Amino acid sequence: MKRFGSGGTVDEQQAAQFHDRFVSTKPEDNQFNNGAYHDAVAEHLGTLPDDQFRQAAQQAVAQSSPEQREGLLGGLLGALGSAAGSGGGGGLGQIAGMLGLGSTDPRQMSSGDAAKLMNYARTQHPEVLRQTVAEKPWFLKALGNPIVVGALTMAATRLISQRRNS
Fold first, then answer.
1. What is the pLDDT of residues 14-71, one digit of tens each?
2. Is this prediction's pTM over 0.90?
3. CA–CA separation, 118 vs 56, rounded Å?
4. How far apart are CA 18 and CA 34, in angstroms?
5. Which 3 state secondary structure label does DSSP give 109?
6. Residue in 137, 104, 123 with CA at minimum distance from that of residue 32
7. Nearest Cα residue to 48 out of 57, 61, 36
8. Measuring CA to CA, which residue among 29, 114, 34, 16 is closest to residue 68?
9. 114 Cβ contact partners less than 8 Å away, ≥ 6 residues apart
């Protein structure tokens, strides 16, 4: 990844540092536009092939702590339930049946079912996955460095374009 318009590149450690600064709420990091980053993350995740995203999501969930897993999946399920219920889609039960999930309990959901659910959110309700990633920034890092670098590249491209147009 080009270093935000310069000739250098960003290695994995620098990518992790940029990610941390984009999701930071510290005053010294206020020049990093959190909203633009979260938009870029959602857009980048939307460009990934289903199998690549599901594999990364499954590994991320499998490696997360039980508390992280429950918070991530609980928030995602709640947001999807609201989104599906407001659209007359039948709510979580219908989504679970359609995806073939063994459980909608975040504590009992397998990492494979969690990946199916996240992939559904990514393709059908990207705003829900965007919200989830914004609330749980650790999850993007857990998806792996190639995905973090892709999201950073998209964010940098957007921010540079905005600066040129202003």
1. 776 777 777 767 877 676 767 778 888 888 999 999 999 999 999 999 999 999 999 9
2. no
3. 11
4. 11
5. coil
6. 137
7. 57
8. 114
9. 57, 58, 61, 69, 73
